[in-house]
Amino acid sequence: MDMDSPWLSNTNISSNSISTVHPDIMETRIFKLLDASALASASCVSSRLYSLASDETLWTNICNSTWPSTDTPRIRHVISSFPKGPRSFFSDSVTNPDTISTTTTNSSTSSPVNPDRTSRLISAVDIYHQKRHVFSKVVETESFGNRSPFRVELLDPEDTVPARIPHPVDERMMLELGDRFTLSWILIDPIRRRAMNLSSYKPVIVERRWLPGEQVHMRYGWVLYSGPGKEGSATEYVKFGISVTWEECQCGVMHVTGVSLDLEDMYGNQMSGKESLAIIQKGMEGIRGSVKGREEEGRRRYEEYMEMRREKILSVISIKEPERFHHSLYGAFRLFIFATLGLLLFRRFF
Description:
Oligomer: single chain
Shape: elongated
Protein name: F-box protein
Organism: Citrus sinensis (Sweet orange)
Order of helices and strands: HHHHHHHEEEEHEEEEEEHH
Structural class: alpha+beta
């Protein structure tokens, strides 16, 4: 724009001119058109704008448009109990969780880890294809067994969700699916009033499976660091894995037949309910990372986790192989002794 234009020269713009705008106009005509980032920036300008930009209706609409699964009576009630309502919930759900932060915060401000208090969790899941809403589901899990694996299933075995998406017929279409699908899995603790998003947004793996029929399997996830004191242990890093299974129907489009969440340690073993709840609580109370670049960060963490997992498994094999060799050598020696004694006895009596 020309800085010497007549429009600018004849217009008196002061830093306080925005204060003359009526609050109703700000809320109904201006703020409702802003996204979350712009609304948060506007709230930093002045105390008056902070008050206007903190309106619960504005942030509720942003949450509902970003995650349609939050537009249910149960979720709305839980979100309203958060410290700053939907604004706190949005901040929890859009940022990147990292459990390493819980160990660096002041112990006087951090709640003690108590898995028994986090026995009820709510999952709010949304799937998009090329920014078009495909699927939403809310599931509340009341309890998790101390020894049984941690796992959340969104669909019953007989349930399917139709989607107007062509089934991939070649590898090119398979690769395109990875760029076109996004998934959000928000795990909510209604007791502690915290939430975190466990998805990489875009799948880290897209593969075709042939048993028990042709399927398209997508894998999302998020890797968390368990904190100091866990170095070298099986839970030094843990991976939340989200699996989405698609099957082809007779009309040539795909149906969602399975959506699940689990938690694995460094060896790929599923963690128990009690262990998982402790990790989840630490993740929810940790300081959050950058909002941008979640897809790249999720893929980077996943690839590093898989490499560390491979190295850890190989190190265990390298340690156990000599032990197996000695056991097999000892067994062969015993077999040789018994065979020799048997041969001597056979010759003596026959």
